[in-house]
Amino acid sequence: MKTKLLLVLSLSVAIIGTSCVSQKKYKAQVSSFETLNAQYTKKQGDLNACENAKANYLKQIEDLNRQLADLNKEQTYLKTNNTVVLNQLEALSVITGTQAESIKKSMENIGMKDAYIQGLQTSLAQKDSLNMALVMNLKGAIGNLDDKDINIKVDKGVVFIDISDKLLFKSGSYDVTDKAHEVLGKVALVLKNQPNMEFMVEGHTDNVSFKKGDLLDNWDLSVKRSTTIVRLLQTKYGLDPSKIIAAGRSEYQPLTSNSSADGKASNRRTRIVILPQLDQFFKLLEKK
Q: Given this model, what pLDDT does residue 43 score?
Protein backbone atom coordinates (compact mmCIF):
# COMPACT_ATOMS: atom_id res chain seq x y z
CA MET A 1 0.00 0.00 0.00
CA LYS A 2 2.79 2.37 0.92
CA THR A 3 4.57 1.52 -2.32
CA LYS A 4 1.50 2.43 -4.37
CA LEU A 5 1.14 5.72 -2.46
CA LEU A 6 4.79 6.66 -3.11
CA LEU A 7 4.36 5.85 -6.82
CA VAL A 8 1.30 8.09 -7.09
CA LEU A 9 3.10 10.94 -5.30
CA SER A 10 6.12 10.60 -7.61
CA LEU A 11 3.95 10.74 -10.70
CA SER A 12 2.13 13.81 -9.37
CA VAL A 13 5.42 15.66 -8.75
CA ALA A 14 6.62 14.76 -12.25
CA ILE A 15 3.39 15.98 -13.85
CA ILE A 16 3.46 19.24 -11.87
CA GLY A 17 7.11 19.83 -12.85
CA THR A 18 6.34 19.20 -16.49
CA SER A 19 3.39 21.59 -16.31
CA CYS A 20 5.62 24.37 -14.91
CA VAL A 21 8.19 23.98 -17.65
CA SER A 22 5.45 24.03 -20.33
CA GLN A 23 3.90 27.16 -18.78
CA LYS A 24 7.23 29.01 -18.92
CA LYS A 25 7.74 28.02 -22.55
CA TYR A 26 4.22 29.10 -23.36
CA LYS A 27 4.70 32.54 -21.78
CA ALA A 28 8.00 32.97 -23.66
CA GLN A 29 6.29 32.09 -26.95
CA VAL A 30 3.44 34.53 -26.23
CA SER A 31 5.91 37.33 -25.44
CA SER A 32 7.85 36.62 -28.63
CA PHE A 33 4.64 36.62 -30.65
CA GLU A 34 3.52 39.96 -29.18
CA THR A 35 6.90 41.55 -30.01
CA LEU A 36 6.79 40.29 -33.59
CA ASN A 37 3.16 41.36 -33.96
CA ALA A 38 4.00 44.90 -32.75
CA GLN A 39 6.86 45.11 -35.26
CA TYR A 40 4.56 43.89 -38.01
CA THR A 41 1.87 46.46 -37.09
CA LYS A 42 4.46 49.25 -37.19
CA LYS A 43 5.78 48.17 -40.59
CA GLN A 44 2.22 47.93 -41.89
CA GLY A 45 1.60 51.50 -40.71
CA ASP A 46 4.75 52.72 -42.50
CA LEU A 47 3.59 50.94 -45.66
CA ASN A 48 0.14 52.54 -45.45
CA ALA A 49 1.73 55.99 -45.06
CA CYS A 50 3.85 55.43 -48.16
CA GLU A 51 0.81 54.22 -50.10
CA ASN A 52 -1.14 57.35 -49.10
CA ALA A 53 1.76 59.59 -50.19
CA LYS A 54 1.94 57.71 -53.49
CA ALA A 55 -1.83 58.11 -54.03
CA ASN A 56 -1.64 61.88 -53.47
CA TYR A 57 1.33 62.09 -55.78
CA LEU A 58 -0.46 60.16 -58.56
CA LYS A 59 -3.53 62.39 -58.17
CA GLN A 60 -1.37 65.49 -58.77
CA ILE A 61 0.17 63.90 -61.85
CA GLU A 62 -3.32 63.03 -63.14
CA ASP A 63 -4.46 66.65 -62.75
CA LEU A 64 -1.38 67.96 -64.58
CA ASN A 65 -1.80 65.45 -67.38
CA ARG A 66 -5.43 66.53 -67.76
CA GLN A 67 -4.33 70.16 -68.15
CA LEU A 68 -1.72 69.15 -70.73
CA ALA A 69 -4.32 67.15 -72.65
CA ASP A 70 -6.57 70.24 -72.82
CA LEU A 71 -3.70 72.33 -74.16
CA ASN A 72 -2.90 69.68 -76.75
CA LYS A 73 -6.55 69.68 -77.92
CA GLU A 74 -6.46 73.46 -78.24
CA GLN A 75 -3.23 73.26 -80.20
CA THR A 76 -4.65 70.63 -82.59
CA TYR A 77 -7.74 72.76 -83.16
CA LEU A 78 -5.67 75.86 -83.95
CA LYS A 79 -3.46 73.94 -86.35
CA THR A 80 -6.45 72.51 -88.21
CA ASN A 81 -8.29 75.83 -88.33
CA ASN A 82 -5.28 77.79 -89.62
CA THR A 83 -4.57 75.20 -92.31
CA VAL A 84 -8.18 75.33 -93.56
CA VAL A 85 -8.19 79.14 -93.68
CA LEU A 86 -4.85 79.28 -95.46
CA ASN A 87 -5.98 76.78 -98.12
CA GLN A 88 -9.20 78.72 -98.71
CA LEU A 89 -7.33 81.98 -99.14
CA GLU A 90 -4.84 80.46 -101.52
CA ALA A 91 -7.66 78.92 -103.57
CA LEU A 92 -9.41 82.32 -103.91
CA SER A 93 -6.11 84.07 -104.77
CA VAL A 94 -7.00 87.02 -102.52
CA ILE A 95 -4.16 86.63 -99.99
CA THR A 96 -1.44 89.26 -99.97
CA GLY A 97 2.24 88.64 -99.27
CA THR A 98 1.96 90.36 -95.87
CA GLN A 99 -1.06 88.30 -94.88
CA ALA A 100 0.64 85.08 -95.95
CA GLU A 101 3.69 85.97 -93.85
CA SER A 102 1.46 86.72 -90.87
CA ILE A 103 -0.30 83.37 -91.16
CA LYS A 104 3.05 81.61 -91.53
CA LYS A 105 4.26 83.21 -88.30
CA SER A 106 1.08 82.08 -86.56
CA MET A 107 1.77 78.51 -87.64
CA GLU A 108 5.34 78.82 -86.36
CA ASN A 109 4.05 80.09 -83.01
CA ILE A 110 1.83 77.03 -82.72
CA GLY A 111 4.86 74.83 -83.25
CA MET A 112 6.73 76.78 -80.57
CA LYS A 113 3.77 76.33 -78.22
CA ASP A 114 3.89 72.59 -78.80
CA ALA A 115 7.60 72.53 -77.92
CA TYR A 116 6.86 74.66 -74.86
CA ILE A 117 4.20 72.20 -73.65
CA GLN A 118 6.55 69.28 -74.16
CA GLY A 119 9.26 71.07 -72.19
CA LEU A 120 6.87 71.74 -69.32
CA GLN A 121 5.76 68.12 -69.32
CA THR A 122 9.35 66.91 -69.11
CA SER A 123 10.20 69.37 -66.33
CA LEU A 124 7.11 68.38 -64.32
CA ALA A 125 7.96 64.70 -64.62
CA GLN A 126 11.54 65.33 -63.47
CA LYS A 127 10.41 67.45 -60.51
CA ASP A 128 7.81 64.89 -59.41
CA SER A 129 10.35 62.08 -59.59
CA LEU A 130 12.82 64.06 -57.48
CA ASN A 131 10.14 64.86 -54.89
CA MET A 132 9.07 61.24 -54.53
CA ALA A 133 12.68 60.08 -54.21
CA LEU A 134 13.30 62.77 -51.59
CA VAL A 135 10.27 61.69 -49.54
CA MET A 136 11.33 58.04 -49.63
CA ASN A 137 14.89 58.98 -48.57
CA LEU A 138 13.57 61.09 -45.69
CA LYS A 139 11.22 58.34 -44.47
CA GLY A 140 14.07 55.84 -44.65
CA ALA A 141 16.41 58.13 -42.70
CA ILE A 142 13.85 58.99 -40.00
CA GLY A 143 13.08 55.33 -39.38
CA ASN A 144 10.40 54.31 -36.90
CA LEU A 145 9.64 57.63 -35.18
CA ASP A 146 5.95 58.12 -34.31
CA ASP A 147 3.95 59.83 -37.08
CA LYS A 148 2.42 62.07 -34.39
CA ASP A 149 5.87 63.53 -33.77
CA ILE A 150 7.14 63.77 -37.35
CA ASN A 151 5.20 63.72 -40.61
CA ILE A 152 6.57 63.89 -44.17
CA LYS A 153 4.26 64.56 -47.12
CA VAL A 154 3.99 66.03 -50.63
CA ASP A 155 1.28 68.62 -51.25
CA LYS A 156 0.85 70.40 -54.60
CA GLY A 157 4.36 69.45 -55.67
CA VAL A 158 6.04 70.67 -52.44
CA VAL A 159 7.68 68.46 -49.78
CA PHE A 160 6.76 69.26 -46.14
CA ILE A 161 8.44 67.89 -42.98
CA ASP A 162 6.44 68.62 -39.79
CA ILE A 163 8.21 67.97 -36.45
CA SER A 164 6.34 68.38 -33.13
CA ASP A 165 7.63 70.91 -30.61
CA LYS A 166 7.94 68.27 -27.85
CA LEU A 167 10.46 66.42 -30.01
CA LEU A 168 12.61 69.51 -30.63
CA PHE A 169 12.16 71.99 -27.76
CA LYS A 170 11.81 72.20 -24.02
CA SER A 171 8.35 73.39 -22.95
CA GLY A 172 7.77 77.14 -23.43
CA SER A 173 11.33 77.61 -24.67
CA TYR A 174 13.48 77.72 -27.78
CA ASP A 175 16.18 75.54 -26.15
CA VAL A 176 16.46 72.25 -28.04
CA THR A 177 16.17 68.79 -26.47
CA ASP A 178 18.70 65.97 -26.78
CA LYS A 179 16.26 64.15 -29.07
CA ALA A 180 16.29 67.16 -31.43
CA HIS A 181 19.92 66.57 -32.37
CA GLU A 182 19.18 62.99 -33.40
CA VAL A 183 16.17 63.97 -35.53
CA LEU A 184 17.81 67.01 -37.16
CA GLY A 185 20.95 65.01 -37.90
CA LYS A 186 18.93 62.47 -39.90
CA VAL A 187 17.02 65.16 -41.82
CA ALA A 188 20.20 67.16 -42.47
CA LEU A 189 21.95 64.10 -43.90
CA VAL A 190 19.28 63.79 -46.62
CA LEU A 191 19.15 67.55 -47.32
CA LYS A 192 22.94 67.71 -47.60
CA ASN A 193 22.79 65.20 -50.45
CA GLN A 194 20.59 67.70 -52.37
CA PRO A 195 22.93 70.76 -52.46
CA ASN A 196 20.91 72.62 -55.11
CA MET A 197 17.66 72.54 -53.12
CA GLU A 198 16.56 75.49 -51.02
CA PHE A 199 14.36 75.05 -47.97
CA MET A 200 12.53 77.12 -45.38
CA VAL A 201 12.30 76.43 -41.65
CA GLU A 202 8.99 77.66 -40.18
CA GLY A 203 8.12 77.95 -36.49
CA HIS A 204 4.43 77.43 -35.56
CA THR A 205 2.56 77.76 -32.24
CA ASP A 206 -0.94 77.16 -30.91
CA ASN A 207 -3.27 80.08 -30.07
CA VAL A 208 -2.50 80.24 -26.34
CA SER A 209 -1.08 83.67 -25.46
CA PHE A 210 2.56 83.43 -24.46
CA LYS A 211 5.04 85.75 -22.77
CA LYS A 212 8.17 84.67 -20.96
CA GLY A 213 11.54 86.35 -20.39
CA ASP A 214 12.70 87.98 -23.62
CA LEU A 215 9.81 86.41 -25.55
CA LEU A 216 6.96 88.90 -26.00
CA ASP A 217 4.39 86.68 -27.72
CA ASN A 218 3.86 83.72 -30.04
CA TRP A 219 5.49 85.62 -32.89
CA ASP A 220 8.72 85.83 -30.89
CA LEU A 221 8.55 82.18 -29.87
CA SER A 222 7.94 80.90 -33.41
CA VAL A 223 10.75 83.01 -34.90
CA LYS A 224 13.23 82.10 -32.15
CA ARG A 225 12.53 78.41 -32.62
CA SER A 226 13.00 78.74 -36.37
CA THR A 227 16.34 80.55 -36.09
CA THR A 228 17.53 78.06 -33.47
CA ILE A 229 16.97 75.16 -35.88
CA VAL A 230 18.53 77.10 -38.77
CA ARG A 231 21.70 77.76 -36.75
CA LEU A 232 21.98 74.08 -35.82
CA LEU A 233 21.59 72.99 -39.43
CA GLN A 234 24.28 75.45 -40.46
CA THR A 235 26.85 75.17 -37.68
CA LYS A 236 26.51 71.57 -36.51
CA TYR A 237 25.41 69.78 -39.69
CA GLY A 238 27.13 71.90 -42.33
CA LEU A 239 24.17 72.91 -44.51
CA ASP A 240 24.73 75.88 -46.84
CA PRO A 241 23.16 78.96 -45.13
CA SER A 242 22.56 80.61 -48.51
CA LYS A 243 20.00 77.85 -49.22
CA ILE A 244 18.07 78.30 -45.94
CA ILE A 245 15.21 80.66 -45.04
CA ALA A 246 14.08 81.19 -41.42
CA ALA A 247 10.43 82.12 -40.81
CA GLY A 248 7.98 82.41 -37.91
CA ARG A 249 4.25 81.83 -38.49
CA SER A 250 3.06 82.29 -34.88
CA GLU A 251 -0.46 80.81 -34.48
CA TYR A 252 -1.80 81.84 -37.88
CA GLN A 253 -1.14 78.73 -39.99
CA PRO A 254 -2.71 75.94 -37.86
CA LEU A 255 -2.96 72.37 -39.09
CA THR A 256 -6.20 71.83 -37.18
CA SER A 257 -8.52 73.47 -34.66
CA ASN A 258 -7.08 74.68 -31.35
CA SER A 259 -10.29 73.65 -29.54
CA SER A 260 -8.69 70.56 -27.95
CA ALA A 261 -5.40 69.63 -26.29
CA ASP A 262 -4.56 67.27 -29.16
CA GLY A 263 -5.30 70.01 -31.70
CA LYS A 264 -3.01 72.46 -29.90
CA ALA A 265 -0.26 69.81 -29.76
CA SER A 266 -0.55 69.25 -33.53
CA ASN A 267 -0.27 72.98 -34.24
CA ARG A 268 2.87 73.44 -32.10
CA ARG A 269 5.44 72.32 -34.64
CA THR A 270 8.45 73.19 -36.76
CA ARG A 271 7.92 72.78 -40.49
CA ILE A 272 10.72 72.34 -43.02
CA VAL A 273 9.52 73.22 -46.53
CA ILE A 274 11.59 71.93 -49.47
CA LEU A 275 11.20 74.77 -51.98
CA PRO A 276 10.57 73.74 -55.61
CA GLN A 277 13.29 74.48 -58.13
CA LEU A 278 11.67 76.86 -60.60
CA ASP A 279 14.75 77.76 -62.68
CA GLN A 280 13.84 75.31 -65.42
CA PHE A 281 10.34 76.78 -65.71
CA PHE A 282 11.63 80.36 -65.77
CA LYS A 283 14.04 79.43 -68.56
CA LEU A 284 11.17 78.00 -70.60
CA LEU A 285 9.12 81.14 -70.02
CA GLU A 286 12.05 83.37 -71.06
CA LYS A 287 12.16 81.54 -74.40
CA LYS A 288 8.57 82.60 -75.01
A: 78
